[in-house]
Amino acid sequence: MTVTERQQLSYIAAQAADARVNLEIETEGMTLNIGPQHPATHGTLRIVAKLDGEQVVAAEPVMGYMHRGYEKLAEVRTYPQVTTLINRIDWLGSFANEVPFILAAERLMEVEAPPRAQWIRTILFELSRIANITLFLGDMAVQVGAITPVFFAFRDREHVLNQIEAATGGRFHPNFDRIGGLKDDLPAGWIAETRQAMRKIRNFCDEIEELVEGNEIFQARTRGIGVIPPDVGLSYGLTGANIRASGVDWDVRRDSPCGLVHNQVDWKVWTHPDGDSFARFWVRMQETREATKIVDQLLDGIPSGPIMAKVPVIIKVPAGEAYVETENPLGVMGYYVVSKGDLFPFRVKIRSASFSNVSITPWLLRGVYVPDIITILGSLYFILGDIDR
Amino acid sequence: MISVLSELSYWQVTSIRVGAGLVAVLLVAGTLVYAHLFKMVSFMQSRLGPMEAGPYGSLQLLAEIGKFLQKEDIVPRRADRFVFKAAPFVVLTSTFLLLVVLPGGPDAWFISNDLGIYLAMAVSSVSVIGILMAGWGSASKYSLLGGLRATGQLIAYELPLLLAVVGVVIQAETMNLQEIVLAQANGEIFGWGAIGNPFIITQFAGFIIFMIAMQAELTQTPFDMPVAESELVTGYMTEYSGLRFLLFFIGEFATAGVFSAIAAVLFLGGWYVPGLDPADNLLNLLGPLVLFGKVVLLTFLVFWVRFTFPRFREDQLQRLAWKFLVPLALANIVVTGVLKVVV
Lengths: 389, 343
Description:
Chain A has helices at 5-18, 70-73, 79-86, 94-109, 115-144, 148-168, 190-213, 216-222, 230-235, 241-244, 252-255, 277-300, 353-359, 361-364, 370-380, 384-388, and strands spanning 30-34, 46-52, 55-62, 177-178, 181-182, 320-328, 331-339, 347-351. Chain A is of the alpha+beta class and 389 residues long. By secondary structure, chain B is mainly α.
């Protein structure tokens, strides 16, 4: 984890902007309220930015406009009912939200899903990652000002959503994961169709690479902008592609797998040394490609067998505590589940990735220009439901 | 045509010209909006675009206008009411004034002024005032940022736009747009005069500079920092609704059409059809259509770029203008001037 010269310079620039005193002309700063209703905030994030001209002196994210109290609501739901709620945390990659909670409950109950269920679970987990990040790839271009790529993203995400729908019955909120396995088996012909969808997603990645990543203006807008040094990123609790773009080689899927079968296939964790907006975009692009490869390999080797372990009809989870985290599309997502042996969880604490990812904005946005606020927020890639739960 | 007009009284001639001006701006703008904004862009983005209103959605624009007319005309409480309300008209006035010097045929012109292109460049700057009025009068921070960005950008790109025109003026030895067309129609390329001498061949650098600067003057992507819908929420237009927003909208596309027409006149030979005598009366009829065809071609380029590229940041945009376009335009003038004297 070495800090590059560029990262150091960015850090110094941020510090200098913080202590900036304009001695030549007496100017008055302006406070710009970005959001809660603003096209770049993906919902209702509010950024209060103090500006000196077009330069940001201080910026502060204000969260909580979409707080839905899922942690509290989960305490009055039975365990199978909770998945309905947590589907709506990161609404673009819903299935991935269910997995860590179910795994935590399974750990408390000391059941393990049969191999076939684990493999299908991992496939759907990666499909929801693709569905989520393809939209980011198009959306990042919108933040920089190009409208067209997002339509391609919507077009090709459709293939993945169709597959998720075919398998689970729900496009956005599958509610498919069960304690001890899955609700249903895969429908006939699904595997071949999914392969085709993966091919289309790889084509989409090539298209975006030519259209967006290779574009000089896009590079000028994102390279060297919003540089996060690895130590700062780690201390703010950044996870997922955001920290891998700073050169930290850390992926929960590979380093501490639990319940998912990522370690059964051959794949690579991509990192980028720069830590700027472009690096975050690049890492996510490679991750999407890698996810399609993971899915392809998993499809080859789905074991046969049941998809449900032996689980009582009325699920009572034995008393105990469990924390399970997985590498979700937005970063590390963890559920801390405390049970007192009831039908309902006693306490559920959700560690969502976007909350930590957005917390770095006051540090990151100092000294940048107003247009860069948008690209940096876009490249950090948060989903409001994932911040406010 | 002249003989017909001279028999009419002054008010009749005037109303014909005003009517022709309105048609020339609104019809062209409407066609461009339909052909480019609705359809071409939709096909680029793998969707169909409007399909319901009229055949292939061709009446969609009328439906849109009907929608905008029904909307409430909101003026923010803290806005400078007069400035806020007047701003769209100032922008639109600049568009219509640009048209005044534009020739459509040997006799189909509004004013044949010896300072034609000079006047056009001068009135095109008036729109900056309108945009600044909108930005300042809205009493909104987004609008203010957008208005100031627009002012900085338009002033910066006025210069390469003007310098690109100077090359053409040197070559044609006139600032009268009608005579610039005739110079191209009567010119010849190394003794071969079948298609005249469209200045795009000799002034290719000037043409490229003109198109880039035009893109910036129109605040289209990649130079749409002032409107920047993903960050400034359409900048100086943020607070406008209903009819006034529509006026800005028409102004944007009509200006794209009129600027493209000026580019067509300067670089593509204007209304001239190769093979015909430039004084042929038939060209009074064909000329406007030919010019319109060239306008559609050039606006296609404008919108193609607009919906393909991301946008520059303010400082990158200024750097492109001052460090690249202005020196290139100056070099172009020097080369043109030297060749004009030597050859």
